[in-house]
Amino acid sequence: MTDPDRASQTYNPATDFMQPPETVVIDGHKAACDGGGGALGHPKVYLEVGDDGFVDCGYCDRRFIQRGGPADAD
Ligand SMILES: [Zn+2]
């Protein structure tokens, strides 16, 4: 049996806030992501940074930022 209210009851803003999507700075404009393997892994995909200087992985929400690009804070 599943209780539709259970998900909202277990939602914890404090702990969720401590786990933001991972960001990875890359050289160049192409990245490969497999989720890092393990439980969070996914089939390897190749991503290309757009004009904004970053690209998000559609599987694991990691954000790849091109070093020196518009989205690179440094
Ligand atoms: Zn990924």
Notes on the protein architecture:
Helices cover 14% and strands 26% of the residues. It is α+β, with helices and mostly antiparallel strands. It has a domain at 19-66: HSP40/DNAj peptide-binding domain, CATH 2.60.260. The strands form 2 sheets. Strands 1-5-4 form a 3-stranded mixed β-sheet, with no helix packed on it. It has a two-stranded antiparallel ribbon with strand order 2-3. The longest helix has 5 residues, at 6-10. The chain starts with 5 loop residues before the first helix and ends in an 8-residue tail after the last strand. The model has no long low-confidence stretch (mean pLDDT 83). Residues 33, 35, 42, 57, 59-60, 62 line the site of zinc ion. Zinc ion is lined by residues 33, 35, 42, 57, 59-60, 62.
Sequence-ordered SSE layout with sheet pairings:
Elements (H helix, E strand, L loop, with lengths): L5 H5 L2 H5 L5 E4 L3 E4 L11 E4 L5 E3 L6 E4 L8
Parallel strand pairs: 1-5
Antiparallel strand pairs: 2-3, 4-5
The chain binds zinc ion.
* First-last Cα distance: 50 Å
Count of β-strands: 5
Second rung of CATH, namely the architecture of the domain at 19-66: Sandwich
Ligands (ions, cofactors included): zinc ion
Radius of gyration: 16 Å
Order of helices and strands: HHEEEEE
Task: Summarize model confidence as the mean pLDDT.
Answer: 83
Helix content: 10-25%
Strand order of the largest sheet: 1-5-4
**Annotated CATH topology of the domain at 19-66:** HSP40/DNAj peptide-binding domain
Shape: elongated
The CATH superfamily of the domain at 19-66 bears the name: q5lls5 like domains
Number of helices: 2
- Structural class, judged by helices and strands? alpha+beta
